[in-house]
UniProtKB/TrEMBL annotation:
Domain MobA-like NTP transferase positions: 8-170
UniProt-recorded Gene Ontology molecular function terms: nucleotidyltransferase activity
Upper taxonomic lineage: unclassified sequences, metagenomes, ecological metagenomes
Pfam family name, one: NTP_transf_3
SUPFAM superfamilies reported in the protein's UniProt record: Nucleotide-diphospho-sugar transferases
Listed name of the protein: Unannotated protein
Organism: freshwater metagenome
Amino acid sequence: MIGVVPAGLLLAAGAGSRMGRPKALVHDERGSWLQRAVAVLREGGCDPVVVVLGAAPEAADLLPPGVRAVLAEDWAEGMGASLRAGLAALDALDAASVEQVVVTLVDLPDLVPAVVARVVAAAETGRGEALARASYDGEPGHPVLIGRDHWAGVRDVARGDRGARDLLSAGDVLLVECCDLAGGEDVDSLPGSPGHQRDADA
């Protein structure tokens, strides 16, 4: 039996005010955060991959062939707008067979494909009903896997910076421990400066 192949959804629309530039345009000593995040989703087993942009639409030029960029016109509203735009784009694709989506953020520079693969493997049997997310020392983080059965509900609750928090708080979410693979930290400022924190929203 062929396993479930989830889509990948990368949220990269924010202005990065504390970073001093949109996070979709940030580079470090290992290269572009945007390109690395796309590679993590692809190598972790996601296909297709959709990237949501907003403050820096020009970042679409950094994307490899086969990755679709979507502009969230209302990106300044917060993460919820990006999540709604990304799910709408996936619904519009000729991809009715896509039963799950793996959602992650561009500002998780230590995320590795093995984390994505572990979350996907843990949620495979749930198919369209699946809800799973990586955790780090018991704290929920990214990536978050959402089965298609929940997409409409996510769009209903995704407002402001809450993303899918309400759904994930109320639902039966499988936590997949990944602290042996990554730290799961959401980096809100330039490397080497204060402001690193783990973002528990989707």
